[in-house]
Amino acid sequence: MIKNLHNGAASIGFDSPLYFESCASIVSQKEGDGPLGNLFDMICKDPMFGCDTWESAESTLQKEVATLAMNRCSLTPEDVQLMFAGDLLAQTAATSFGSAGIGIPFYGLYGACSTMGESLSLGSLALTAGFGSRVLCTTSSHFASAEKEFRFPLGYGNQRPFSATWTVTGSGACILNTAPPGENSPLRSSGGCAAITGLTAGRVMDYGLKDSMNMGGCMAPAACDTITRNFADFGRTPSDYDAVFTGDLGVIGKKILLDLLGEQNIDLSPIHQDCGILIYDNETQDTHAGGSGCGCSAAVLCGYILPRIQQGEWKRVLFMPTGALLSTVSFNEGKSVPGIALIYIRGDLLTSAHCEYQDGQGSEVTHVELRDQCLFGEFHCHILCVGIDHRSGKHHKDVQDGHYEHTGSGNGSQLLKRV
């Protein structure tokens, strides 16, 4: 069992790191045509993935990515003790049917587009508590199944406002291990490997916003709250990180986040990137505000972020999936859209810790310091709790309205230039 150390108001640091042993990503052709297309493990030209329905296609997508992650490090389902997975659909239907044939003990999760963060967080807690040595964490989303459930049937052909995002058809899977990855692991190189070293519990933030076509605006306050509490709990500033990734705020949510942080004298702009903006080229792919969905941050994490940490390009990274917690029922009843954000910090671990584990010696590493010059990537997970902030949100609404004043409601090029 790994000793957990409580940090600040909402954070937990692990006495020994949890390692990424393998990862995999699968996307559809649209994502494959984007800027990160050559980084994903598989690109499927058929959005139906050989199935008869969109929901079955997403189930197949999630099953395939989980199998690929295991195959990349020669594992079988019997080698994995627990599976934490989820999707956007009601009762996590895609995950339930997708996991049925895998045979790993299963926990179904829903955190909207932040579900990859939730799965990694709960998987880490399970490992630190001693409930196994290896877990599988995966999520997925599908453009057509999400449109069908949350918006309009594709055949209806409705127009999308420029604040809307495009749900990513994709999936990502990670395998976590209490021991460092072996020589043949896809996430092991001379540059080191990535490891989770802690997590921060956040809060669901409800500012009363009801526009489901502007999920970035709904999620931005939660992202701001989680980042500031992470900095406070771990005593860090933006200069301590090489990069900060949000999940799918898009161009509008990103601008709101940076403005909210700026009011607290936090300048994140030099190092901030958004997975939803990275995954598509809006000028050529017409995705409006960017990408979204569980598969957005999951695919970017597995295809883009983790390999660069492994290669030593980044020493310490914050990875923060974001989610808009709406349902078809709550939206039709006129409820607001609460936001959620989960942060992960990656940095470097001392070479001595690497050597002790690498030599197969059972000695315990009681405290691992962080140094810029060392080998490993650190990965602190930050989860959001169920407490809802019931403030009126007038200030945030004013900020958001200010962005709309500069973007207009009928000119997409103006929106992208101004925001």
Describe the structure.
- The structure is a single chain.
- The protein has 419 residues and is of the alpha/beta class.
- Helix content is 34%, strand content 24%.
- The protein contains 14 helices and 17 strands.
- The chain has helices spanning 29-32, 54-71, 93-100, 115-128, 143-150, 215-234, 250-262, 275-278, 282-285, 294-310, 328-332, 351-358, 394-407, 412-418; strands at 4-7, 11-28, 42-44, 82-86, 106-109, 134-141, 166-167, 170-177, 194-205, 243-246, 272-274, 291-292, 317-320, 322-324, 339-341, 343-346, 377-389.
- Strand 2, helix 1 (29-32) and strand 3 (42-44) form a beta-alpha-beta unit.
- The protein is globular, with a radius of gyration of 20 Å.
Low-confidence stretches: 347-419
Rg to the nearest angstrom? Answer: 20 Å
Structural class: alpha/beta
Shape: globular
What is the share of helical residues?
25-40%
| Assembly state | single chain
What fraction of the residues are assigned to beta strands by DSSP?
15-25%
Strand element count: 17
State the major sheet: 13 strands, mixed
The mean pLDDT is 79
Question: What gap, in angstroms, lies between the N and C termini?
Answer: 47 Å
Count of DSSP H/I helices: 14
Give me the secondary-structure topology.
Elements: E1 4-7, E2 11-28, H1 29-32, E3 42-44, H2 54-71, E4 82-86, H3 93-100, E5 106-109, H4 115-128, E6 134-141, H5 143-150, E7 166-167, E8 170-177, E9 194-205, H6 215-234, E10 243-246, H7 250-262, E11 272-274, H8 275-278, H9 282-285, E12 291-292, H10 294-310, E13 317-320, E14 322-324, H11 328-332, E15 339-341, E16 343-346, H12 351-358, E17 377-389, H13 394-407, H14 412-418
Parallel strand pairs: 2-3, 4-5, 4-6, 7-12, 9-17, 10-11, 10-13
Antiparallel strand pairs: 1-2, 2-8, 2-9, 6-8, 13-16, 14-15, 16-17
Helix pairs in contact: 2-3, 6-7, 7-13
